[in-house]
Amino acid sequence: MKLLVPVKRVIDYNVKPRVKSDGSGVDLSNVKMSMNPFDEIAVEEAIRLKEQGVASEIVVVSIGVAKAQETLRTALAMGADRAILIETDAEVEPLGVAKLLAKVTAEEQPGLVILGKQAIDDDSNQTGQMLAALLGWAQGTFASKVEVEGDSVAVTREVDGGLETVKLRLPAIVTTDLRLNEPRYASLPNIMKAKSKPLANRKPEEFGVDISPRLETVSVSEPAKRSAGIKVGSVDELVAKLKELGVAA
Ligand code: AMP
Fold first, then answer.
1. pLDDT at position 117 over 90
2. Quick one: the chain helix, strand, coil %, rounded to 5?
3. Whose CA is nearest to atom 17 of ligand 1?
4. pLDDT tens column, 194-235
5. pLDDT digits (tens, 9 = 90+) for 39-79
6. Three-state DSSP class for 115?
7. Is any ligand 1 atom within 6 A of the Cβ of residue 87?
8. What percent of the chain is predicted at pLDDT more than 90?
9. Does the beta carbon of 99 lie inside 6 Å of ligand 1?
10. Between 94-108 and 127-135, two packed helices, what is the crossing angle to 10 degrees?
11. 8 Cβ inside 6 Å of ligand 1
């Protein structure tokens, strides 16, 4: 079985985002970019399925700027076999990404597409669900456990108040949650080996889908600054303050 894993290049999760002075978006100049953390988990899960003998090939795909090649090389260094970059300087929204991924899925015919549950830059949490709808495939979202059994996959999902296990007929879509696994680091020899693994460069126009934007970002703003606290000298003073602020009766 072939596995397809879409990976997105996003602002590194350790970086504190700076909003552009005109409020039009996040300033990405000179900012460290990395693979979306949920996509690292998806790559790791695919590698584990290959190690178990369930999967035979892992194809990673990214839609983005030329530098997204680096993200794909990271996935190849972790253990993916082959990569596809769909290169564009345009910002492609989740529906556009899902349409392109649907075309790649039709070409590659994977048994399972494993995506992150959300990209930490737009926090959309839409692409996997849209892809499942476009393909008419079953979906198991927010997976904390994935077990392939014959022609189906059991996905344990993190839901409010507990865990839910669903069984999907393959081919299917899975999106990863944080606790599914702990992604491995690529070793130096594997980073070197990844340089010679195949990476195809494609353009969105080749796929014949409309990826024009449907959304307009009206404004982006920093979270409100926390105001300074006040120190009180005693419990009585605290109660009086709370009453004054209308927090206590
Ligand atoms: P989102 O719906 O934007 O929160 O993204 C959910 C998941 O879709 C991500 O974790 C990726 O697996 C995939 N994805 C989103 N955008 C892209 C992209 N530009 N290239 C590759 N995969 C993507």
1. yes
2. 30, 30, 45
3. 8
4. 999 999 999 999 999 999 999 999 999 988 888 888 899 999
5. 999 999 999 999 999 999 999 999 999 999 999 999 999 99
6. strand
7. no
8. 90
9. no
10. 50
11. yes
Cα gap 41→176, rounded to integer Å: 7
Q: Where do the structural domains in the chain lie, given as residue ranges? A: 2-244
Q: Which of 4, 8, 72 most suits a substitution to test ligand 1, by most atoms within 8 Å of the C-beta? A: 8
- The amino acid present at 133, given as its one-letter code, is A
Report which of 213, 132, 211 is spatially closest to residue 170, judged by C-alpha positions. 132
Question: 2-244 maps to which CATH number?
Answer: 3.40.50.620
The answer to whether the CB of 36 is under 6 A from ligand 1 is yes
Q: Assess contact for 35 and 74: CB atoms under 8 A.
A: yes
- Residue 88 in contact with ligand 1 by CB distance below 6 A: no
Is residue 91 lining ligand 1, measured as CB closer than 6 Å?
no
Residue type, 108: E
Tokens of 45: 């899960």
